[in-house]
Design a protein that fits this description.
- The protein has one domain.
- Helix 2 crosses helix 9, helix 3 crosses helix 7 and helix 5 packs antiparallel against helix 11.
- About 8% of the residues have low confidence.
- With 284 residues, it is an all-alpha fold.
- The protein is 83% helix and 0% strand.
- The protein is built from 11 helices and no strands.
- This is Udp-uronic acid transporter 1.
Length: 284
């Protein structure tokens, strides 16, 4: 790759990461706003709205706008991998949304970048809003997110059955909806009546829900693109850096309390991301 092409690629990746950060943090903040201010405590239904937007917008982008050509599923094994990715994705997003009900926004972002007992103990003592169930859901979502990154990396880069990001979203989202709809009916039985009554009372809620779902499509698409153009490991490291940025923004918006131990944890996360970036630069 020439120097000019390398610079263009670096600029493209940087812009892609900034867009991913912006849409992802926007979705998380709107999720927290809906859950906290409107009593929208239905994470499964909210995730289903996100997947519905992903399915509709991907279909429009491919079939009508012709942004990318349609790609067909080539084998049963490829379909099974897509279905597995859909279910893992649902688990990661639903777990993250459930954790928002119990933990402060920044607790969740810290939880995404942590491991094992040392940080569990540090977070439980250093986070004023620590909640064990919310923490467990956050950790489960983090594990599912890591597995999802590896699986989507395979689907986006396997030469024999490679899909582009938009086509992967097109096939993945409807499967996720099929999984989430019965789960919402069983686990959130009053959700549809609640959403309709809430929408009649607060008409602006529909706008927020639409913007939230559209931003979720952008965040998911950017997530796939970042995986394709970097790697699953880089995606996880960048996700930790994104978490640190999100924490700062959430503190400014929600005025959450912060402790010295919490600040130390965020600092360690940023230092780890910087060390990873430096090691990649040296050996690339």
């Amino acid at each position: 790759m020439s120097s000019s092409a390398s610079k263009k690629h670096a600029v493209f990746i940087t812009c892609l990461i900034i867009l991913w950060y912006s849409t992802n943090i926007g979705v998380l903040l709107l999720n927290k706003f809906l859950l906290s201010n409107y009593g929208f405590a239905f994470p499964i239904f909210l995730t289903m709205c996100h997947m519905s937007a992903c399915a509709v917008l991907s279909y429009i982008s491919i079939m009508f706008l012709k942004i990318v050509p349609i790609q067909r599923i080539k084998s049963r094994s490829q379909f099974l991998r897509i279905a597995t990715l859909s279910m893992v994705f649902c688990g990661s997003v639903v777990g993250g949304n459930i954790s928002l009900k119990y933990c402060r926004f920044r607790s969740i972002r810290l939880g995404i970048g942590m491991t094992k007992d040392l940080i569990f103990n540090g977070m439980s003592r250093g986070e004023p809003s620590f909640h064990l169930y919310g923490f467990i859901m956050c950790i489960g979502a983090t594990a599912a997110r890591a597995f999802k990154s590896v699986l989507q990396g395979v689907l986006l880069s396997n030469e024999g059955e490679k899909l582009n990001s938009m086509n992967l979203m097109l096939y993945m989202a409807p499967i996720a909806i099929v999984v989430l709809l019965p789960a919402a009916i069983v686990m959130e039985p009053n959700v549809f009546d609640f959403v309709v009554s809430l929408g009649l009372e607060h008409k602006f809620m529909w706008v927020l829900l639409l913007v939230n779902s559209t931003m979720a499509y952008g965040a998911n698409l950017c997530n796939f693109l970042v995986t394709k153009h970097t790697s699953a490991l880089t995606l996880q490291v960048l996700g930790n850096a994104k978490g640190a940025v999100a924490v700062v923004i959430s503190i400014l918006i929600f005025r959450n309390p912060v402790t010295f131990i919490g600040i130390a944890g965020y600092t360690m996360t940023v230092m780890g991301v910087a060390a990873y970036g430096e090691s990649k630069r040296r050996y690339s």
